[in-house]
Amino acid sequence: MDYILAFDAGTGSLRAVLFDTDGNQIGCSQEEWIHLSDERYPGSMGFDYEANWSLLIGCIKDLLKETGVNPKQIKGISATSMREGIVLYNSSGEEVWACANVDSRASEEVSYLKQTCEELEETLYQLSGQTFALGAIPRILWLKNNLPDVYEQVSIMTMLNDWILYKLSGTLQADPSNGCTTGIFDLNKRKWASGYLQECGLKDSFFPPVNEAGTVIGEIGTEVAGMTGLAEGTKVVSGGGDAQMAAVGAGAIGDQQTMVSGGSFWQQEVNTNKPFFDKEGRIRVNCHAVPELWQIETIAFFPGLVMRWFRDAFCQEEVKKGKESGRDPYELLEESAKDVPVGSNGIIPVFSDIMNYYSWRHAAPSFINLTLDPQITGKKEMFKSLQENAALITLGNLKLIEEVTSSYPEEVIFTGGASKGRLWSQTLADVLGVKVKVPLVKESAALGTALYAGVGAGLYATIQEAVEKVVKWDRVHEPDQSNHSNYLEIYEKWRRVYVRQLQLADEEVTTHMWKAPGFQPH
Q: Checking phi first, is residue 312 left (phi over 0); if not, alpha (psi -120 to 50) or beta?
């Protein structure tokens, strides 16, 4: 039996996941990352590459011990990670600085760039599909301003998944689907865009070679084999960003396919055969992990985290019952909420806004329009309203994409932790008014990464062949069109409420749930 190994480096943890060639998960080892917050620099969230390399080694050893798989049977290895996190190296290939995607220390640099290089941000958006909000340029400028000795050492930059592959293979490189999220990338050409860093007062020499996902970049050497237990000579293969790899693992590898990934954040990914750009800069555009494809991306902030907060704050009873019965507390909450009517008896939750990439922020977290009648406004109604809210944000984001592309999806693939919920999946279908398909493997980023490792190792001829063989469907949810009509009316009310709540946050009467670094209300 042949196996393929994927590393999935999320915001909070690293997972090493082993699959067979039929896509069955054989084993998984997980460790929480160590992020470094420096009290001298508010918003800092450094990536501890020394400690995390030790965690990576431990993950590999634990996985091999747990599964008992002969390392020689592992034919290919690849990695995916959170986007935007970067690692910087000196000319000798040694790490000198790194940060996670949630690092927000460069707020002053974002403000400076927006004020002094406003036309440059628009130029880069039309080239790269990114704004300064999450990009690498403000972070590198911060390094120059605050740690000039470190900045002078910097010779090359990669993303976090590339760092994993570098530690395993010794090859410094990047892939289009994650590299493009730096904002220093030419989407059409799928390669680095040189010259623009100089306009921001930075040196223009950070760029490693670019390899499409599935490209063999090296192999496990003697030293790494001794440290990890992996077999010497195992192929190491270029990977990609987590949202793009999740699309691959969910079978969304064709033009016009749409995927919704429901995790801590919710991403809406629409595949296109060319980059589209919004003249108002509201949406994000990325390279897909699949060559010759791109993705329009919108992001809903924190639906999964909001649901976790609700569980921990109000649902101790379900958590206790879940522990006693061995069931997921969310499953118990869905059972109690299954008969709550559309609209949750009028509750309007205010959490994430629809996407506005140029001016990105969210109103203060709120529940609006509660009643004092516990029979119609209680735990189950509030729970259902949060599920509806995530779906309404998704609807709004897909409407934004429709404005740009003149296309609305005929069906949606729903993956990630939220897709485990049958009520949530059906609610999404009803709100969107289209069929929702849920793949058998919900955590699809690791699977998509493994499939590309398999392509590089020659286990599959193409990614299309791999997806056709491996991706299977758990269930399909057909929309209730009557419910959909009601949700369209609810959506319009929600938008009116949200605009006013956002105004209160902009006026500092309330506090934004989140706002992009450097954001200043007009």
A: alpha
Q: Which amino acid is residue 438, in one-letter code?
A: V
Amino acid identity of residue 316, one-letter, is Q
**Closest by CA position to 394, among listed 372, 425, 371, 365:** 425
| Residue 216 belongs to a domain | yes
Residue 465 lies in a domain: no
184 and 55 in one domain?
Answer: yes
Residue 354 confidence (pLDDT): 97
Cβ atoms < 10 Å from Cβ of 486? 16
Q: Which two tokens stand for residue 277?
A: 């750009």
Q: Do 267 and 126 belong together in one domain?
A: no
Q: Which of 108, 433, 134, 399 is nearest to 265 (CA)?
A: 134
Do the domain assignments include residue 439? yes
Going by C-alpha positions, the residue among 173, 180, 82 that lies closest to residue 135 is: 180
Cβ partners under 8 Å of residue 54, min gap 6 = none
CA dihedral sign of residues 475, 480, 485, 487: negative
Does residue 464 lie in a domain region?
no
> Which pLDDT belongs to residue 522?
61
Q: Are residues 304 and 188 in the same domain?
A: no
Distance CA 412, CA 476 (A): 10
Nearest to 264 by CA among 246, 278, 282: 246
User: What is the Rg, in whole angstroms, of the alpha carbon atoms belonging to the chain?
Assistant: 23
- Identify whether residues 174 and 282 lie together within a single domain: no
More confident of the two residues 162 and 280: 162
Do residues 207 and 156 lie in contact, with contact meaning Cβ atoms separated by under 8 Å? yes
Check which CATH number belongs to the domain holding 214 and give it. Answer: 3.30.420.40
pTM: 0.92
Rounded CA separation 150/161 (Å): 22
What distance, in Å, lies between the first and last C-alpha atoms of the chain?
Answer: 61
pLDDT at 208: 97
Token pair 């620099």 is found at 41
Q: With H, G, I as helix, E, B as strand and everything else as coil, classify residue 450.
A: helix
Q: Which two tokens stand for residue 122?
A: 């628009």
* C-alpha torsion sign, points 179, 184, 189, 191: negative
How buried is 314 (Cβ within 10 angstroms: 0-12 exposed, 13-18 middle, 19+ buried)?
A: middle
Q: How high is the pLDDT of residue 327?
A: 96
Structure tokens at 333: 């909450």
- SS3 label, residue 10: coil
Residues 285 and 215 in one domain: no
Q: State mean pLDDT over 115-137.
A: 89
Strand order in the sheet with 46-47: 35-36, 46-47, 95-99, 86-89, 156-159
- Per the structure, the count of domains in the chain is 2
Range of the structural domain that residue 179 is part of: 3-238
Model confidence pLDDT, tens digit, residues 33-54 = 777 888 999 989 999 999 999 9
Say what angle helices 422-432 and 329-337 make with each other, to 10 degrees.
50
Say if residues 294 and 275 touch (Cβ distance below 8 Å): yes
- DSSP category for residue 371: -
Same domain, 221 and 256: no
